[in-house]
Every structure is written in C-alpha cells, then in structure tokens.
Amino acid sequence: MRGTELPDHDVLPALDERWLVPPDVASLAPAGGAMHRPRILLLHGSLRDRSYSRLLAWEAARLLERFGCDTQLYDPRGLPLPDGAPASDPKVQELRELSLWSEGQVWVSPERHGAMSGIMKCQIDWIPLAVGAVRPTQGRTLAVMQVSGGSQSFNAVNQLRVLGRWMRMITIPNQSSVPKAFDEFDDSGRMKPSPYYERVVDVMEELVKLTLLTRDRSAYLTSRYSERREDGLKAESAAAKLAAKATSA
Predict the structure, then answer these.
(1) Does the pTM of the predicted model rise above 0.90?
(2) pLDDT for 213-223, tens place per residue?
C-alpha cells in the first residue's frame, strides 16, 4: 500500500547533523543492568491527623515493598512555603535528597476546590528542575493518585500529570482516584477490599514494571537533540576562544 509521496524525504536543511543521534536498539538494552531494589519516593498532600492521602500513600508503599522495592515516605509537616525560606532549610534538603535518591515516585493528593492541595504543590515547587548539571526528577517514573471527599473526580491527577511532564518525568498511563475516601478506610487506617484498592494494586504493579524497564536507560531516554546541540555549540565556542587566546599570546 502506498500513500502520498513525501517530497525531499531526505533533505533536512534546518537540522544540525552533528548532534543527531538516531534511536538505537542496543542503547535501550544496556549490559550489566542494575540489580538493586527499585527506589520509590512517596509524597502526599495533607497535614491532617487522619489524612486519607497519607493513608493511601502508606497502602501504596506496602504494595511497593511487596513488589520488591525500597520506599521512602516524605512527611511535609514543617516544610516552608516556596521562597519562604532558603533552600538550605533542613526540610527542603531532605525532600531534594530523597528525590535524587529515587528512581520512581508516587504523588498522592486530596482534591480541594477542584484542584490538587497546596501542600502537594508546595512540595513539587521545592524540587528544582536542575541543580547544576543534575536534574532531580528527569527520567524518573511517576504514578499519580488522588482522594476525594465526594464523588469520583480526576482533577487532581490530571494536574499532577501536567506537573510530572513539566518535571520531565515518565508518568505511567494508569492512575487511581478514590472517591468518598472516608468510606474506603477502616478505623485502623487500612484500605478496605474494593475495586478502588484493586486499582491501587494495578497502579503500583505498573509503576514497578516501568521503573525496572527504564531506570538503566534513563540517561539515554532523556538525551535530547536540542540540548546536545546547545551543549556542543557552547563547547565549540569555548574551545575557539581558548585557541584564539593561545594564538595571540
């Protein structure tokens, strides 16, 4: 079957071929892959004593441990507002170090006024896109979940997906939204058996699989033509200046 013929199919005048790296199957299957347990950071978006986003994060962490992961749960209590304290604040440093430690993350927010909570957004706002040459979230996997006090909604998880993309994370397709969360947890804080719990299991299973699939390939998957070109041109310019300086000396 033939479609419309593409004119000038091999002519790309705007492309700088020096920095083009066509996708390579061998680079997607590196030898000697990591064998340690996947490292997953979980964030929740509420400070209440009986926080359903925290209870859901705990259920997710238990499942991740069962799936063979190492987990860390960040406690947002005491985290200052963005720009309300220096980045050297101990709670900010703890959050950033955990993000660097992680290979995947789980974000769980309550829905408040049709959106994610301010506590949730505050945590993400304290994680920079870049610290020097290090990107604390780029290439890490991400699962998003939310709890609601009323009927099922997807406003918070949709916003979390936008944030995940902005932070250059690999957000998995599956997600969880738990409505009327007060009905889904027992008095001891454990989630009751239900289709909502089964969805949480599905989401964590998918997160672990995609983390195992991508963690050894993260640097290759996030290597971009535009950034390679920018870095290459800077290096060429610096080398030319050094050469000119040496010639004039």
Answers:
(1) no
(2) 888 888 888 88
